[in-house]
Every structure is written in structure tokens, then in C-alpha cells.
Amino acid sequence: MSAIVSERNVGPVTLLELGQRLVGTSTGELHKKLKDLIEAGRTELLLDCSQVSAIDSQSLGTLVREWVSAERHGGKLKLLRPSPQMREALEITRLSPLIETFDDLSAALRSF
């Protein structure tokens, strides 16, 4: 299954709907997509994580690296509706305070 299910722009924000499994080869796909968007100047990134049922440490590392990259380029990477599995992974790794999360799309878009 693909790491990215859909992509759409909402004003300056790029909204990516993530697939169910962010493990193995999908990590590389996620990294490439985020890197390409940031390099193209699309640095306001919102990742819909509501369908994520599995995430590994490599994918978490990718999220952190691209969060840093977006910040360096004057943007933000934020998470929308993290699934219970995603929330648990963020809590265990102590990334919850670092990466801003939202349960409401409108509130997330306003935060940019």
C-alpha cells in the first residue's frame, strides 16, 4: 500500500492523506514526497494520519527530519487526526510536544 493516498492544496497548505502502513518501503516514498514538496516551496504541510494503523521508527524519523526541514525553510509540518496507533507512537517517542497535532481540519488550517 502507498504511503500517500491523496494530495490536495488548500490555499498555501498541502494536505497529504497518509496510508494505513508507514513501514518499510513506504517510508522512502513518504520521505521523497515531503522532501520534493519542501524543495518546491510547499512548506506548509498537513498530514492526515487518521488511517495510519502501523508506523515504524524509520517513518517517525522521517517525520522528524522533514519537520526540521520545513521549519528551516520557514514552514511547518503538522499532523491531522492521528490514529490511536500514531498517537501512541508519538507519546512513546516523546514527539507529541514537538509536532503539533489537530483533530479538526478547520482548526489545523487556521493554525498556519
From N to C, what is the helix and strand string?
A: EEEHEEHEHEH
CA(first)-CA(last) distance: 30 Å
What is the helical fraction, as a range of percent?
A: 40-55%
Which whole number gives the mean pLDDT?
92
Mind summarizing the main beta sheet? 5 strands, mixed
Shape: globular
Assign the structural class, choosing from mainly alpha, mainly beta, alpha/beta, alpha+beta, or little secondary structure: alpha/beta
Contiguous uncertain segments of 5+ residues: none
**What's the CATH superfamily, by name?**
STAS domain
CATH class: Alpha Beta
Total domains, how many?
A: 1
The largest beta-sheet arranges its strands as 1-2-4-6-7
CATH fold-type name = Transcription Regulator spoIIAA
What is the CATH architecture assignment?
2-Layer Sandwich
Radius of gyration: 12 Å
Strand content: 25-35%
Instruction: Determine the number of helices (DSSP H or I, runs of at least 4 residues).
Output: 4
Give the quaternary arrangement of the chains.
single chain
Counting DSSP E segments of at least 2 residues, the number of strands comes to: 7
Structure in words:
This protein is α/β, with parallel strands linked by helices and 112 residues long. The chain has one domain: STAS domain (Transcription Regulator spoIIAA). The chain has four helices and seven strands. Strands 1-2-4-6-7 form a five-stranded mixed beta sheet. The longest helix is centred in the middle third of the chain and has 16 residues, at 57-72. The radius of gyration is 12 Å and the shape is globular. It starts with a strand and ends with a helix.
